[in-house]
Structure formats: structure tokens, C-alpha cells
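pasting for the record
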Amino acid sequence: MRLLAAIIMTAALLFASAPAQKDDRAEVALRAAIDKETVDGDLKGAISKYIKLAQSSNREVAAMALLRAGRCYEKLGDSEARKAYQRLVRDFSDQGDAVKEAQARLAALERAGDLSHPPGITLRKVWGDPFGVVQGSPSPDGRHLSFTDWETGDLAVRDLATGQNRRLTTKGTWKDSEEFALASAISGDGRQVAFSWFNKEKYFELRIMGMDGSQPRVVDGDKGFRDLVEPYQWTADGKQILAALVKGSNEVIRIVLIPAAGGPVRVLKTLARYPWYASLSPDGRFLVYDAPGPGDGKDLDVFLLSVEGGQEIPLVRHPADDCAAIWTPDGKRVLFVSDRTGTDGFWVIDVVDGKPQGSPVLLKGGMERGIRPNGFTREGSFYYSLNTWMHDVYIAEVDLAAGKVLRQPEPVAARFVGSNSVPSWSPDGRWLAYYSQRSDSPGLDAPTLVIHSVETGEERNVPVRPEQLPVPVIWLPDGKSIFVTTWGTPKRDLITNYRVDVQTGDHLFVRSFPYPVPGAGDISPDGKTHFFFSEGEPKLQLRVISCDIETGQQREIARVPDLAGGFPKLKVSPDSKNLALRLSVDGDKWTALRLVPATGGEWRELCRFPQSETAASWDLAWTPDGSSLLMVRGTGKDGMPELWRIPIAGGEPQKTGLSMKGMRFVAAHPDGRRIALDNGGEEGSGEVWVLENFLPGLKSGR
């Protein structure tokens, strides 16, 4: 960890610490290359810049450029990564931390073997889905893909040959109905699709309908285990559907077989943690799934279960995360995702009569995190989806009063690039907390909470459970504990607050709130009062509640009668006298900023902006002196996000000069100059890919 901290500090503070005479141009160029990689997501363009910088006379810059070039090569699955690391070790022995990191990467690559995939294998993107990860499946002939159209929540299919989408259900708009489809799986004959449906009674049920939208029916609508249902696949005979059922906020998960014609559900396995995927062998004899391994249970392993006998064995066991397992169509192998090389990759292992044969073989390395299998076609093409959002935490320096940027944003983390978000400063400004989706994170929606030392670069991970909402943590005045906001149930109809010790990770339950009204709120600077939203009557009349944390006594201090939905935000002023409210009002056309006295009383509106300028920004922040509010607006060229300052005493909102693509959450350091922010990526960064021509060319690991 100390090594990683040193690497992180090298990247984050390079330009602040280097003497002016030490080739400032090289440092500026490195910053531009890092932006090309982390902000634009252009790995090839970044590599080109890094390789040029490796010739720099500034050896710190050159070494860091080679290190980052190697990681970019790894993400692309390019064996040039090895050469970049070898050159760094050979030519920059004086750059200790960078050399140690390069040596570690070389060792990992040696364990994994060649980065390149077997001859003949092809990997191609078939769709850039505008709604994120696809929880659907391909048809057996590879022509269609089922998915949820999140514009309405309807179940839909995409013609992968023509690019045309067609909705199978017709629920209407979100205003017409809050029902929606979630996961789906097409039958082996390509004629039907099974899908989970969140119904009017606010629970999930499994439904089946024809691929032409005909004959929809509920297969299993038992409320007893319906906080979530996810169908994975149909059995080969088309008579049953393999699915996961979830019950309660403690996430008791059952892997089951549900008869397509209706009838009793057969439970195959009960788990305490939601798997990335589960798959049944073509002959129906064996189930594979991922679950925590032995020890502390942080790392995932792949397990195999005999359906008839019930015997369970570890199919893949390794001190890394091995997950998302799926049987190949021939029933001879299991394909799974592993991060044992440092980045996610596809691996396969031979299986004979329910037993592993030999060692796993690497198919393709350098993949993105968060891979979700969609399934195989009849001919053996493997479809999968992933979320390609790139979001990182940065620190900039700004003269807020003058509207001038003193130091452009620089990334905080050098590792797990593209996976960091929602920063929050500790009260003394010595620590920065942020969420990071890392290989050791417990799931796609359960990131790791990182506490980063601004002084030393040291980082420590705090275990937080269960799934966090994408909102910053709230530091309590002692700087030793934080307030986190989580989904209270798997179906996300409840929001729960915990108080977490940043040293031990101990959780203290505070309270829960019904969604869609957010209960995150804010804590007064003295740590004694929790302010939050609660739904009033009639519906969508928002109440602002003050709660004494010690006694639990609550009282209403204000009402918002014209709320139009969205994700309202509440922040307490540094002097505890006022609450700033960020609200969507007047039919969701405007974002309004209002002030309410913390002791209760009438609110006053500071200003309002078109919703189109503020929809992507969920945050609101006070300046440390309490004179202004900070808010992101998409007012730059082509809607580029810009940071604005809004004086609470009156006057026109002012630009701060800080602008960045995807800027979303912001937090002001106690010194009033440093601004932590994240670039939350572009909405609709999901992709569907297909891996082809790999089954015939596989070599046994024996």
C-alpha cells in the first residue's frame, strides 16, 4: 500500500513539486496525456503521448509515462505492455517506486502468460447501448438481443443486423406507470423471452411472452421472495428457467429453477451474496456460480454444484476475484472473468463429469471491469456487456472570488483509473474520501470507500455495506467517522443511513427512508442534528425534517409544495444557520436553489436555472466561509460543465473559471481554494461485445 501511495502521489503532485527549471513543458505534456487517457478515454492517443514523453530529460516524467503506457497497453490486451515495463526497469533504476510497480506488473504478466489471445479469435463491439449494462441475452441464432428500454422501462429486442429496436411491452411513459422490465433471457428455440417485471404492487415477478410480443403471462408472482428476480437462462428442453430470487435487505439469495408452465420453484442453492452470474450446464447436471472464497470472504471463487446430488466443489480457487461463470455450449468448459493479472480478463477451464481438468487458460486480458455475461449463441459466440463510464477524482485550485483557476484539475489516483467518484473532504482538510470501483469491490454497485491522505498519498479502504448511492459521504466533526447512504433493499425502494468508523469499518444503523424521496440529507457542523427530506401529503410535497441525532426527536421545518421529482439535494451552511436546497420544480423544467432557516421558517429562492443545464449535476456545496454556494451547470461550449458560484446575499451567479468534461460532484476544501471534483462520465456508456472463434482453438490446460 505504501508503494501504491507513492505512485499515486507521484502522479497527483508531480506538477506542484517539480522545480520550474526541470522541464515544465514535459510536466504539462504528461498532464495532457493523463487527461487523454482518463478524461477522454482515448487509450491509443494517450499511449502515443506517453511514448513520446518517455524520451524526456525529466526522468520522473519519463518513468511515469512508461508506467502509464504499460497500463494502457494492458487494457488493450497488447503485449507491448511488457516492453514498456521492461524499458522502465532497465533504463530508470533511479525511479524506485515506478520501477517497483513495473516489476510487479511484469510478475503478474508472467503468471498470466502472453497477453495476446489464441490465433483466430475475434472480439468486436456490436452495440453501444445508451442505457448502460444490458441484462438480456442473445437469440440462439445471434440475430436479436433482449434488453430493457429505459426511456420507458419496457422490455425490448434489438435486431443486431439492422440496428433496429422494437418494444415487446407497451406500458407507456414513466408518468403513465412506474412498472418496468429488468433482466431477460431468450429461450433456446428463440420463440419466447422470460423477464423480470416490477409490477404495480411494487414487487418483482417473472413473466414470459412471445418474441413477437404475444401471449404475455405471469409464471411466478409469489410475493414471498420477490425483492428481486433475475432470469439467467432457459434449460435445454425449454421447460424451466434458471433464475436468482432475492428476499429482504439482508439479501438472502436463492438460485432456483422456475417451471415455464408454472408450478413449484426448485431451490438449487442459497447464497448470502448476490452472484455476478449463474449458469446451468447444457445437460442440466451442474450449476456454476461465483461466491466468496474461504478466509475473509473478500475474494470471489467459482463453485460447481451437482444439481441432483447437491455436492458442491470449488471449480476455480485463486487469491483474486473469479466470477461471472458460464458454461460453453459444448458443456466441456466453463468461461469466467478473473482479475488475477491486475485487470479483468476472460479465462476458461476444462470440466469433465463435474470436475476441473488442468489449470485455467487466459483467453483475453486487459478487459474493462464490470463485465456481465449475456450468453452464448448456438454456434458458440459469446456475448457480454459492460459499463464503459470513465469517472475519476481530481483536485484543482481556484480563486473563487476572482473567478480564476490557479491550478488545473489533476487526478488523485494513479491506479484503478476510470473508477473513482464522489469526493468529500474531512473537516480538517487532511483526508479526501471517495468511492472506487476496484477489483476487490463486492459488486458492480458496491464500490470500495477510499480514505486518501492529501499530505502523504497514503490510502486505506473502508468496508461499507451494502450498495451505496452515488452521493458523497458526510464527514462527522471528529473526522473519525462518516455518514453513508445506501440502498436499503435490493429492489431499491428503501434508503438507509449508517454511521461508519473510518478506522474499524464498524457500522451503526441510523434510519431508513422510503424511495423515491432521498433520505441522504446532511449533518450540522457540530454533528448533533441530521437534516433530511421526507415525503409529505399529497404525494410529491417534500418535507424538510430536523432530527436530533442523540434523542431521535424529529420536527418539520419546511415544505416544498412544487417539487417535480428528480434527486433533491440538501446542504447545511458552515454556521449551521441555513439549509440550501437544490430542487427540480415547475414540471421538471427548472432547477431552483432555495434557502431555509435551519430552525424553521419561510424559504427564499436564490435563483433558478433551466433543468437542461443542471440535469447531470447532482451535487451542491457551500464555500467554507458560508458566503456562496457552488453548483455545476452545463453552460460551456457544447454544454461543457462549468462550476458556478451563487452568492447567498444576492447578486448574479458567477463563473469560477473551472470547467471539465463530465464534471459532476464538487467539494470545497476548508482553505477555500482547493476543489475536489469528479468527472462522472457520459450517460449511456454501455457496450455489448461478442467473442468469437475461440472454442475450436482452445488448448487444454492439462
